[in-house]
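Quick one, C-alpha cells below:
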C-alpha cells in the first residue's frame, strides 16, 4: 500500500475540551495539541522537498519526547453491524491500525493480520479503523477475521470530527498505535511494508507478517515488563 503522509495542518479541533475523561493533561490528544506546533513547519518542509527520512525522524522525535506514556483517549468507533466500540472496554493491550478504502492494503497484509489475530487472540486485541463512511468500507471489512474489531469513522458523521482531526489529520495513514491494557501509549508508527506490485503473494505475506509481529512483540514485551514491575512493587 502506498504511504500517505498528510502534512500537519493547524488542527483547531484539538483545542476541544476533553471534559469527560480523567486528567485531561495526561491524554494523547492534549499532549499532541500542546507539542505539535514546533514540528509542523519543519515536517511539512521536509515532505514537500521529498525528504521522507527527515520527516520521519521529526515524527519519531515528537512521539518519543511527548506522546509515549500518555493516555490514549477513550475514543468510540462505529462497528459495521454492532454497537460502538469504546476502547477502554477491551481490557487487553490494543494493536490499532488505521486504513482507508481508497488506500488499498498491500498484497498479503490482511491475511497476515488475520493469522496474527488468531495466534494472539488471548493476549491482544487488534483493531482496524477505516477513515470512511460505512458504505465505502463494508466490502473491505469483510476480508478481516471476526477476531479483529473492524470499525470506521468519518468527519461527516455526528461526533466523529474531533476523533478524525486527532488521529487522521495529524498522523496520516497508515498509522499503528500500540496501547497497553491501561490505555497508555506504548508507541506510534507510520507506514507499512509496501512490498511493491511485482512481489509474490508468499513474500508479501511474510514481509507484512514479520512487520506486524515486530510491533506485537513490542506490545507483549511492554506488558510482561509492566507486570513484573507490579509484582516487585507488591513485595
Amino acid at each position: 500500500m502506498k504511504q500517505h503522509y498528510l502534512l500537519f495542518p493547524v488542527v483547531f479541533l484539538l483545542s476541544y475540551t476533553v471534559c469527560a475523561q480523567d486528567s485531561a493533561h495526561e491524554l494523547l490528544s492534549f499532549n499532541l495539541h500542546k507539542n505539535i506546533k514546533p514540528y509542523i513547519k519543519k515536517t511539512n518542509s521536509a515532505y514537500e522537498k521529498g525528504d521522507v527520512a527527515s520527516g520521519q525522524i521529526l515524527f519519531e522525535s515528537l512521539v518519543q519526547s511527548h506522546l509515549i506514556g500518555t493516555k490514549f483517549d477513550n475514543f468510540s468507533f462505529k462497528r459495521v453491524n454492532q454497537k460502538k466500540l469504546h476502547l477502554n472496554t477491551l481490557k487487553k493491550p490494543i494493536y490499532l491500525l488505521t486504513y482507508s478504502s481508497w488506500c488499498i492494503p498491500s498484497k498479503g497484509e490482511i491475511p497476515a493480520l488475520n493469522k496474527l489475530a488468531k495466534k494472539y487472540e488471548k493476549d491482544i486485541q487488534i483493531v482496524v479503523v477505516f477513515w470512511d463512511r460505512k458504505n465505502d468500507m463494508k466490502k473491505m471489512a469483510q476480508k478481516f477475521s471476526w477476531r479483529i474489531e473492524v470499525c470506521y469513522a468519518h468527519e461527516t458523521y455526528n461526533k466523529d470530527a474531533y476523533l478524525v482531526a486527532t488521529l487522521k489529520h495529524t498522523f496520516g495513514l497508515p498509522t499503528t498505535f500500540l496501547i497497553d491494557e491501561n490505555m497508555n501509549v506504548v508507541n506510534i508508527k507510520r507506514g507499512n511494508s509496501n512490498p511493491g506490485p511485482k512481489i509474490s503473494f508468499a513474500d508479501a505475506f511474510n514481509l507484512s507478517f514479520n512487520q506486524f509481529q515486530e510491533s506485537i512483540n513490542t506490545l507483549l514485551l511492554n506488558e510482561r515488563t509492566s507486570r513484573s514491575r507490579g509484582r516487585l512493587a507488591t513485595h
